[in-house]
Amino acid sequence: MAFPRQIRNFNAFVDGISYFGRVTEGKLPDPKINTAAFRGAGMDAPAGVDMGMEGMQAELTFAEYAPEILKMTGTMQRMVLRPAAMGEGSFEADTIIATCGGLVTAHEFGALKPGENSTVKMVIDLRYYRFELNGEELWEIDIEAGKRIIGGVDQLGGIRRAMGI
């Protein structure tokens, strides 16, 4: 039986600074295509038609109230998450690099309880997202540049050319 290659650990960088040991959780964005239902003559059911992407967010939960992080509300920041995956029977790890850029929109404070850790979650509204696995770029989404490259295919290249961009 083959076991899956699972995420074993991760590191997080904000504005190029490593927060190794200071971040407890990270959440990658969920790229999702926004669709509109279309049902033409003769079709037995509506089909979803690509109408662009939904907005994306990424999150980091910090184990401390770091002043430099709290001061980032309302600023454009770049965050890089580097999870590492490994399977059973091998000590080779997969290199995963998720680069996220956008506006820091919120800092959500966890509950204050005596004898328990207090956390703060930073939320970033993304304008840029790139996901690489072992050196292969799987996704590059640049909202401001009108780019959506999935698996090496520029899905919006024809639209940009038609608009003269």
Order of helices and strands: EEEEEEHEEEEEEH
Structural class: mainly beta
Mean pLDDT across residues: 96
Tell me about the largest β-sheet: 10 strands, antiparallel
State the helicity in percent bands. under 10%
| Strand percent estimate | over 45%
Ends apart, CA distance between termini: 51 Å
Oligomeric state of this protein: single chain
Shape: globular
Low-confidence stretches: none
Strand tally is 12
Secondary structure tally, helices: 2
- The Cα radius of gyration reads 19 Å
Q: Helices, strands, pairings?
A:
Layout: E1 6-14, E2 17-18, E3 23-27, E4 33-38, E5 47-53, E6 57-62, H1 67-70, E7 76-86, E8 93-109, E9 120-133, E10 136-142, E11 147-150, E12 153-154, H2 157-162
Antiparallel strand pairs: 1-2, 1-7, 3-6, 4-5, 6-9, 7-8, 8-9, 9-10, 10-11, 11-12
Verbal overview:
This protein has 165 residues and is mainly beta. The chain has a domain at 6-31 and 52-130. The chain is built from 2 helices and 12 strands, in the order E-E-E-E-E-E-H-E-E-E-E-E-E-H. The strands form 2 sheets. Strands 1, 2, 3, 6, 7, 8, 9, 10, 11 and 12 form a 10-stranded antiparallel β-sheet that branches. Strands 4-5 form a two-stranded antiparallel ribbon. A hairpin with a 2-residue loop joins strand 9 and strand 10 (136-142). It is globular and about 65 Å long.
